[in-house]
Amino acid sequence: MKQSKLFLPTLREVPAEAEIASHQLMVRAGLMRQLVSGVYTYLPLGLRVLRKVQEIVREEMDRAGAQEISMPAIQPAELWQETGRWDAYGPELMRLKDRHHRDFVLGPTHEEVVTSLVRDNLNTYKKLPINLYQIQTKYRDEVRPRFGVIRSREFIMKDAYSFDVSREGLDKSYQSMYDAYTRIFTRAGLTFRAVEADAGAIGGKGTHEFMALSEIGEDTIAYCTSCDYAANLEKAEVVYKPVAERTVTEAPMEKVPTPGVKTIEQLMNHFNMEARQFIKALVFKADDRFVVALVRGDHELNDVKLKNLVDANVLAMATEEEMKKLGIPLGFVGPFHLPEGVEVYADLAVQDMGSAVAGANEKDYHYTHVVPGRDFTVQAYADLRNIVEGDECSRCGGHIAFARGIEVGHVFKLGTRYSEKMGAKFLDENGKEQPMIMGCYGIGISRMVAACVEQNHDENGIIWPWSLAPYHIHVVPVNVKNEEQKQLAESIYEMLGRAGYEVLLDDRPERAGVKFKDADLIGLPIRVTVGGKASEGIVECKVRKTGESQDVHVDELLAHIQHFATSLQ
């Protein structure tokens, strides 16, 4: 491709709305442009990268035995109502009505659609297992689109769905996808880690997220420094070891005035006590009921763990208005004198507290000498807190450390959650109806591009890995008005093209400095500069990633590039 003909509007200045490197560089290097918040147009260079990602994904999905289909983006509300997600999914679900006032959604995912497809067309064990996938644009009404295409309202995703006759079959399908994802992200040149995770709104038991390691990642990864255990913060298991000798106060509870003292920090100053000596109580609405969750004052509640414990579809902090209706004063919540039907759940560490301070459920008062089990009843104790760095690993006893990551893939074991609700059944070899056992597997195609840029850039621009580069080689004649340079550059361009390389020729009548800045910004793996030694048939060959450069005679250029290309693949 000749650059003079390429729609490639590069920018020198950093866009005001771009907070992170990938967003800045994808706009500055002419890969994309924003239409409205969270919605982007991909320009030719960006589209080429997207297609490279899609090609890798298709090859590995096909290799794993999955079959590509294409499902509608517009989905009838009735399917989502069958599974209960019409109400449970939340405001991120983009809803619309047609001219007949029928409800539809713009698909953020396709569990309902694919389940109805298989339900209506496959009904025997002889046709299973099957794995169907698609690459399609998805829609989610993000409350705050940010970081370019890492969190956008419209994005490109690969989603796959497996249907099996048994749990053992699902395990095989799941492992097949796990292995395929490992190959995909490796081929894409990403530094990544597979971590245990929570299924969230998708549902199901057994899931891993594939995280591209990055300091700007929105997810925290808890990993062991001694073994291969890794989990998303919301899923990471906390090792509980009961206190060997619990010292329990004999003093009865005492209600003491604490006017305006609400936070743990304020309580620490007021009582001159450590955070670990306080019980922190939080009120949540779990579907249509209310629950109180307790953690030690030096711990943070993990609301995902709580949601799973109480088996709620939707869990949210109680609003101030809801607290007023319950008669619970904000800032003085405790496990005492609660309205009928409000259950109390506590983190495992709470049961070891032998003399604690807790809110009295009365404005401006707390209780001291509180003993869990003696002074209040807990519905259940469970692991309800966030793991912290230095905690013990649940697998090997090593120490936990943290890293940040961008979620680029997610694999789920759905089981029968969707097949039972939607009647997706098959006849087994005995002629008996059984629900299909499902798995779900997603990859953020557009997010992968951003993650790649986050991991591969410097102060001058993008540094594309060979597998995703929009073009492999950038041929840059320093002065196109010099006939020798122009002719040599064009002959190199044609030679490399015939050899199977994807080549971009900068034939613009720009100054050399402008060309070199654009070349570094775009970041193609190899740059061939045709300059003052063109009359001798000598050009400069430079690797963008390492900065390694060498003068090469044109007769040896192809062999030299083949050597460089091999080292970059």
TrEMBL record:
Keyword Nuclease applies: no
GO cellular component, as recorded: cytosol
Any single biological process term in GO: prolyl-tRNA aminoacylation
Keyword field: Aminoacyl-tRNA synthetase, ATP-binding, Cytoplasm, Ligase, Nucleotide-binding, Protein biosynthesis
Main location per the UniProt record: cytoplasm
Subcellular location: Cytoplasm
Catalytic activity entry: tRNA(Pro) + L-proline + ATP = L-prolyl-tRNA(Pro) + AMP + diphosphate
Nuclease as UniProt keyword: no
InterPro entries linked: aa-tRNA-synt_IIb, aa-tRNA-synth_II, aa-tRNA-synth_II/BPL/LPL, Anticodon-bd, Anticodon-bd_dom_sf, Pro-tRNA-ligase_IIa, Pro-tRNA-synth_IIa_bac-type, Pro-tRNA-Synthase_IIa_type1
Highest taxon of the lineage: Bacteria
Record domain Aminoacyl-transfer RNA synthetases class-II family profile: where: 33-465
One Gene Ontology term of the molecular function aspect: proline-tRNA ligase activity
Enzyme Commission code: 6.1.1.15
UniProt subunit comment: Homodimer.
Summary of the function given for this chain in its UniProt record: Catalyzes the attachment of proline to tRNA(Pro) in a two-step reaction: proline is first activated by ATP to form Pro-AMP and then transferred to the acceptor end of tRNA(Pro). As ProRS can inadvertently accommodate and process non-cognate amino acids such as alanine and cysteine, to avoid such errors it has two additional distinct editing activities against alanine. One activity is designated as 'pretransfer' editing and involves the tRNA(Pro)-independent hydrolysis of activated Ala-AMP.
Listed HAMAP family: Pro_tRNA_synth_type1 (MF_01569)
Record text about domains: Consists of three domains: the N-terminal catalytic domain, the editing domain and the C-terminal anticodon-binding domain.
Annotated family: Belongs to the class-II aminoacyl-tRNA synthetase family. ProS type 1 subfamily.
Protein name listed in UniProt: Proline--tRNA ligase
Lineage: Bacteria, Bacillati, Bacillota, Bacilli, Bacillales
